[in-house]
Amino acid sequence: MAKVYVGPAGVPMGLKGKRSTLDGIKYVKDIGLNAMEVEFVRGVRMSITDAENAGKLAREIGVRLSIHAPYFINLCSDKDSTVEASIKRLMESLERGEAMGATVVVFHPAYYGKLGPEGCYNAVRESVMRVIELMGKEGISHVKLGLEVMARRSQFGGLEETFKLVKEINNPQVVAVVDWGHIYARNGGSIDYKAILNMWREYFGNQPMHTHFTAVKYRRGEWVDEHEPIDTNNPPFEPLAQELAKEDLDITIICESPLLEQDALKMRDMLLKYGNTMA
Fold it and tell me: Which helix (DSSP H) or strand (DSSP E) does residue 204 occupy?
């Protein structure tokens, strides 16, 4: 059975009032979840002190924190200024992740653009190596840099492509982040959970997994990365809960459904139904 951490991407919707990160962490714990991803997707607007305070609270009450870096990152841009700005945003996110004791900073690496898949692969690798060097200089030693598996075929981040690059970089502070909905969309509306878990074992052994889950939308003849409630079953969550029950695995599942904590609670209940345990 898997040991699971489950929670929402961002401050829960049910929280009223000022909706601060601190209040969100407390709320997550109060409703019976044990993870929360702090969203910097529109920009890094949290001070180091606030990050430290969030981390202190999370450790005290047992909530695992992670961060999603800004969307405005493209390590394969033909503009040097865009790549430099992307690395700067990553470092700002990593500094706060280190301060709060987050497990991972998740980011969308790139679009293939003019470089194509092979050229983009090399460019992402080069930029990630630069970030690793900067992390060392800044004393960032706990939080990991997470390359997310992406939904669109125009984006760097196919499953095998991402796993291969992370394995090749071979640094404990660089990890792959599995987004189950993205894989479903990129595969044209199909997913084999068991095969993906086996592939994870092949590449990374018993390394903990950080993952995202949401259903996605079918629009204009294709599956697109538009988030839907999990009850739409695209992809279905229950088969994943069943497969995880067969695994000795530490896994975080961040709910990116529009219903956030409501769907996170549904996922928790399904995971527990099949014998998985909350950490």
Answer: helix 193-204
